[in-house]
Specification:
Largest sheet of chain B: none
CATH topology of the largest domain in chain B: MetI-like fold
Helix content of chain B: over 70%
CATH class of the largest domain in chain A: Mainly Alpha
Order of helices and strands of chain B: HHHHHHHHHHH
CATH architecture of the largest domain in chain A: Orthogonal Bundle
Number of strands of chain B: 0
CATH superfamily of the largest domain in chain A: MetI-like
Helix content of chain A: over 70%
Oligomer: heterodimer
CATH architecture of the largest domain in chain B: Orthogonal Bundle
Strand content of chain B: under 5%
Shape of chain A: elongated
CATH class of the largest domain in chain B: Mainly Alpha
Strand content of chain A: under 5%
Number of domains of chain A: 2
Number of domains of chain B: 2
């Protein structure tokens, strides 16, 4: 018996408080708070040596409060403080013109467009391949092991080569990056959809046969709806991984535009604040994309009659 | 139509027909079935290589655009010392050390927060969220913190492998059924006895799932982290510099090595899984 279970019936609490304690929101907020506190502590700890050095060179007297204040306001800190990163993000999103190359939204949009293009192509390809694998025994036996084996291959390592080679023959811009996202995102879709297309049980397939349903009818009326939950689950993985693909694809293009280019440029010039703000933008983008797929899943599942 | 292309297409058709025929066979003995399960994908793989070679020769594609497998093979055999040095730097140092520390830390953290449902509720959604993030982006920061040599790559690998391990282990620790836990309680077994004799074995399939995911992630992390700065050795370094010099056959050789290392790593973890979780339903054959 836990303490909470003992006291819960006797103590009268407001529903809001009860939900906060028993739900996930409060623990997440507290853990996040602790992480931010640790971050601030590390900011002071990691940036202090440089700052002390700077004080000694300038010959100024300093106190602990000075040190804490100044470690959080360095130009190129080892670890920027959270509020510096937030300020940088604010400055480069709202503070600059939307069309400017210094705007972070502009870079995020470049990355997002190739992510989405690659994700759409990859998902379509994955679904088609899964259809082939489910309906053709030879394809299942020969292709499936390679689909699984290819997941053990570090595909991202190929990324710079694809970009440079496609650049050499005059293909540049969106498509090469999207190809990497495609390559990365089609695996989870194939694996998930093969499982999904096979998820109808034998008696359901038998029922379709008693209706004298053709192969196409069985596919559209039974296999496809049965596979939809699997599709959305694998799409969540696929969209996250195609964002990674797009970011890595931007590394070798000479740091022109996109979040990956911001990362690379930041690391060349030691602009840590810029790296962190690009990282946070990428994280926000990932959360947005996965969230959107999740919303799509909920809408489609509701229309299919699933209970929430 | 020239002979290389025609030959490749003929080979493709023949291999396809052979595979169709083989797939329809239904041998009775288990060993024959296993051999068939290896043979069919092997034929498919060889076909891919032959078609690749044929297309490159048939259409006279420049080796910069697509290197034929034969040229890649010559390059692999002629530059083994370089490949071995890169393999040592990237795989034996960065990947293996980072993998061990990352997975170990994730595992221990999961055990540490196991007794606190509050921490679990707080950490699990965050862990799931972080797993979806492009963590690879921390690579430049790690290179700044830990320098150009392998420790910075190992650090990236640690961060990438930590969260999948954490999430899977926590999930696995709750996988044992209530009946089993009640039984342990009737034996008056302590928390640690229950943990070691019941809950950890029950969590093994989940833990091995994380180990398998991480084996791929670790290699990717180490290679991509090398794009941000390395000493003059390493798989990622070799790939990025040889691309710049348009030595695409060397890049392919390096990729083949990485693929081989990744597959062997994954295979080793899978074999270990088979040995440890032999009792699990997914391991039963037939």
């Amino acid at each position: 018996m836990t303490a909470a279970a003992d006291t819960a019936p006797t103590r009268t609490t407001t529903p809001v408080f009860r939900r906060a304690v028993e739900g996930k929101a409060l623990p997440i907020l507290i853990v996040l708070g602790v992480i931010i506190l640790i971050w601030y502590a590390f900011t002071v700890y990691l940036n202090a040596p440089w700052q002390i050095d700077a004080y000694e060179r300038a010959g100024t007297e300093w106190t602990a409060t000075d040190l804490v204040r100044d470690t959080m306001a360095q130009e190129r800190p080892v670890l920027p403080s959270p509020h510096q990163v937030v300020a940088e993000i604010w400055k480069t999103t709202v503070g600059t013109r939307l069309t400017s190359k210094r705007n972070l939204f502009y870079h995020a949009w470049i990355t997002l467009s190739s992510t989405l293009l690659g994700f759409v192509i990859g998902t379509a390809l994955g679904v088609l391949l899964a259809v082939g694998i489910v309906h053709n025994r030879a394809m299942d036996k020969s292709v499936m092991p390679w689909v699984i084996a290819s997941q053990t291959i570090p595909i991202l390592a190929v990324a710079p080569m694809i970009i440079v080679v496609l650049n050499a023959i005059g293909l540049s811009g969106l498509l090469p990056k999207a190809l990497i996202s495609t390559y990365l995102s089609f695996f989870p879709v194939v694996v998930g959809m093969v499982k999904g297309f096979r998820s109808p049980e034998a008696f359901q397939l038998d029922l379709m046969r008693t209706y004298n349903a053709s192969g196409t009818q069985t596919f559209w009326k039974l296999r496809w709806p049965a596979a939809l939950p699997y599709l959305f689950t694998s799409m969540k993985v696929a969209v996250a991984i195609s964002l990674v693909g797009a970011i890595v694809g931007e590394l070798p293009t000479g740091a022109v535009s996109g979040l990956g280019a911001r990362l690379l440029a930041g690391s060349y010039y030691g602009q840590t604040v810029q790296i962190w703000s690009a990282l946070f933008m990428a994280a926000a983008l990932a959360a947005l994309l996965v969230g959107l797929v999740g919303i799509g899943q909920r809408v489609v599942m509701a229309r299919l009659g699933a209970k929430p | 139509m020239n002979w290389a292309l025609t030959g490749a297409l003929l080979f493709w058709a023949a291999a396809w027909a052979l595979n169709e025929w083989l797939a329809r066979l239904n041998p009775h003995s288990a060993s024959a079935r296993r051999a068939l399960g290896l043979l069919i994908p092997a034929i498919f793989g060889i076909t891919l290589l032959v078609v690749w070679e044929g297309v490159v020769r048939g259409f006279d594609i420049s080796p910069v655009l697509l290197t034929p497998p034969s040229a890649i093979w010559t390059r692999i055999t002629s530059s083994l010392p370089t490949l071995w040095a890169d393999f040592q730097q990237t795989f034996l140092k960065a990947v293996l050390i980072g993998y061990a520390i990352g997975c170990g830390a994730g595992f221990l953290t999961a055990i540490a927060i196991d007794r606190s449902p509050f921490l679990q509720r707080g950490l699990m959604p965050l862990g799931n969220f972080v797993s979806a993030l492009p963590i690879i982006g921390v690579a430049p920061i790690m290179v700044m913190w830990f320098g150009f040599d392998w420790p910075s790559k190992a650090a990236v690998v640690i961060i990438m492998t930590f969260f999948p391990m954490l999430v899977n282990t926590v999930e696995g620790l709750s996988a044992s059924s209530a009946i089993d836990r009640d039984l342990m309680r009737t034996y008056a077994s302590s928390y640690w006895q229950t943990l070691f004799k019941l809950r950890l074995p029950a969590a093994a399939p989940f833990i091995f799932n994380a180990l398998k995911i991480n084996s791929t992630l670790a290699l990717i992390g180490a290679i991509v982290a090398e794009f941000f700065g390395t000493p003059i050795v390493g798989m990622g370094f070799r790939i990025s510099t040889e691309v710049g010099r348009m030595n695409i056959d060397m890049v392919w050789a390096e990729i083949a090595m990485a693929a081989l290392a990744g597959s062997l790593f994954y295979g080793a973890v899978a074999l270990l899984e088979r040995a440890v979780t032999f009792w699990h339903p997914s391991m039963r054959s037939g």
